[in-house]
Amino acid sequence: MRCGAYPWAYMMWAFHTACGTDMDHSVDGWTSEVQIDASLGADIDDNVPLEESLARCKAQGYTRGNSHLDSSLDPTFVKHCNKIQYMELILHAQEGSNHNDPHTPSPTFPVRIWPNDAATVNDDASFQDFFQKHVLHAEPAEASDVLSLPPAFLATCFDPALGSSTLNIHSPPCQDLLPSFHVPTCVANDYMQRINTSHPITLPTLLRTESPVATHCRYGLNMALVSVEGAGGLSVSVSTRAPSADEYMLPLRQDPVDTTPASPPSSPSSAQSSLVLGYGRVLFIPNGHAATFQGAALRFCYTDASNFNRMKQHLRVEALLDPAVRARLVAFQDTTFDSSMIRRVSRVHTAWPSFRQWPKPQHLAKESRHDGSTSSLSRRERYKLWQDDRKWDTLIKGLTLPVTRPPLVLDAAQDIHRTAITLTWQDVFQARKGDITRYGYQVSWVPDKSSIQSMPATADIGIQRRNLSSAELVRSALPTTAFGDAFDGKAIQGTITGLRPNTSYTFSLQLYVGDDIGLHSERSASMRTASMGVPSVVRGQPIVLQNTLLEAPSCVSLSWLPPEDDGGCDIVGYVVSARYDPRPKTAADSSVDDAMTWHPFNTTSQFDVVQSVVVSTRELTLDPTNVTGAVCNLRMRQTYQFQVAAMNALGVGSFSMWTPPLLPSQVSTASTSKARQDVVRGVGAPHFHRVYDREHLDDLASAGGDDVVGPVMHLSDTQQLLQPYQLIAPSLSTAVLRYDANGKLVWTSWFAHVWPGHFSPKLYSVVAELVVANPILADKPLENNVRDRLVVVRRGKLPLFNKVYHAQAAGALGVIILDEICDDFDHHCSAGSNLAFGEGFGAQDDAAVWAAIRIPHVLLRRGDAADLVARLPVASQSLLTDESI
């Protein structure tokens, strides 16, 4: 393969040509395999990528940041690896600027130029306006000042025979002219003049071209171009630059986050694609751009707060090849470097001697004293001037604060959650000892486009921000390798909460120190929060507590640990699953575990303790460590086991371990004599729990909130009794109706004898709200909500089985059939049946017909029901008393 057919090979050739020396093969064992030398003109082995060569360097102890300080490494070895690293970074820059095809040269694009609007010039404030309107937004723009050159200055201080000539500051004739020479206003705050190193790039350069040529400033520096072309002026166009094989350039960033607190950019209507500069007029060109012209111009390369961090990024790369660049980088990184900028630039500051002098004399550094102009101002005007100076200082300080690399996630399993992400980034700021100024990082994040499309209309899709103070951050104890060997400092971590589950975000960072806030970092890679799901497993084994629910003797209290993860949704309740041994056990049984033959509930009776019930959060006792709740409807004299699972809107999580077997003596503190009957609780009864049904999770979560409209009744088909539910029921043997002083019935004393069906289960009593069926005759499926309630129907002419069947299918716990014709419970009321003989109604019916019925069903004489009907809603009363039905 020829070099021209593979871009990285061509880059190596270009780099070799630029460096002027071949790679040194004196390091045995690995350099011989690196195909980077003069033989690049012939076929090469493209199976040895730069990454592999760089890995070999690192295996020998090479690191990008500190190898020049490691005396144990061979300087030739370090120099060679630096070149490999440099080429790898150039490749990365080219790939980053051309996402469609990294092997195709990146295109350049023309950029509009903003002409000077003379009407907006405002003397001292002109530099600040220009800086905030154009420089901070990296807009090529014509400055308002006109550079006046001393007579014969160009011919004396530059070599007119060269196409590119640097100012000869050591020539005595030129030195005589320099005191009257002024630099452009936008260059007056050049940071390059403040360090103790010199380089020709810090001096003005005279460029002469006979054909259109593009020029730029290296190292991420801004450029000021001054026309020295006579008649007709100098025609200049500006375009973006693309990373090339012979010079590193950080690609221009396309970032949705506003990177500066400056004024908004100017209106694009006044911009133009090219501009003719008159003699002495100044054009500002930001770094990353090139100016194309034909003629003569003075070029100034400089840096200030607007490109300070970008310039340092270029120097870090260029320092791999040039020790002098490394010296400049160290000078800029020194904590004593003064990054302040003069806001009201005057001709005193642009004069060449003042421009080159650093540190500047106090009368120049302190703006308020440089010309005595403030002495005539009022106190209010001086205060306003002081405020503007402080705002300016804050802006400049923020622009020059260190900028970290994009944040990342070190361990997705531990750092990414449903509503939170723990980010890791470089710790680029260390407060001086004893400095109590508050500092930290402002984190900005925004969901990506794919996530925005799936969000509800009410979701906030804009940029979100949060400040993480130094107290909220966690620093690594040792230097980190998470950011590569270019960074040898410590990492810092912070957690962002309040995110949406299953959503992709990108993050950027800004360092803030006191009231100063720095520039945004580059945006991170996309990070997706975890999806919502069911809660995690309930940990451990639930504990059976001593039952204190005297009003619910068939209940048991359990305590368990909540799940560690709620699944991203609030827990709305817990599902308690149970099983029992149908054979009676006593506390004396020592081999209970071995003797158990466990059965799920609901095998013989629909409304016995069911396999799983839901206990909503409103019925639970919550403390910081445990959850406590009661489970009822237990059969007495049975042995039980329980397990618990958490439930949210998405479903039920995994169940806990089973409890140890719960013996009958542990079920209740109340009497467990055979005279006491098991109780099934429905809506309106204390400690009522809905049966778990995965298709109706919303209903289950709100079960404890059902409104009770009708009376809560206690129905017993064993005792043949219907009465209002109360904690302490009167004895049946002494029950009597009582009336108040006005002759009205005391409701709690009301009771009525009922006639159970012959096939009614007679296994338990029911406590639940009483409702009237719709339709009242229950001659077809019921239309109203009777689930977990007692339902009243009228007898009518339909077979009784059909009525009970429709009620059971609708979820009723029991059926009360209001009989309009019976005076006594005998064969006149139900053919072939007589209560006196111990028979229930329907005794002559086929048992196979009633085999499907598992809920209690009783007849209530209409004459006994008058007071009960009065307790029902008015609409229900009319249905029960309407003679036309």
TrEMBL record:
TM helices/strands, residue ranges: none
One Pfam family recorded for the sequence: fn3
The protein's name: Fibronectin type-III domain-containing protein
Signal peptide start-end: none
Annotated SUPFAM superfamilies: Fibronectin type III (SSF49265), PA domain (SSF52025)
CDD domains (UniProt xref): FN3
PANTHER family cross-referenced by the UniProt entry: NEURONAL IGCAM-RELATED, TITIN
Domain Fibronectin type-III positions: 541-666
Lineage: Eukaryota, Sar, Stramenopiles, Oomycota, Saprolegniomycetes
Keywords: Repeat
Species for this entry: Aphanomyces astaci (Crayfish plague agent)
Gene3D superfamilies: 3.50.30.30, Immunoglobulins
Entries under InterPro entries matching the protein: FN3_dom, FN3_sf, Ig-like_fold, PA_dom_sf, PA_domain, Striated_Muscle_Regulatory
Superkingdom to which the source organism belongs: Eukaryota
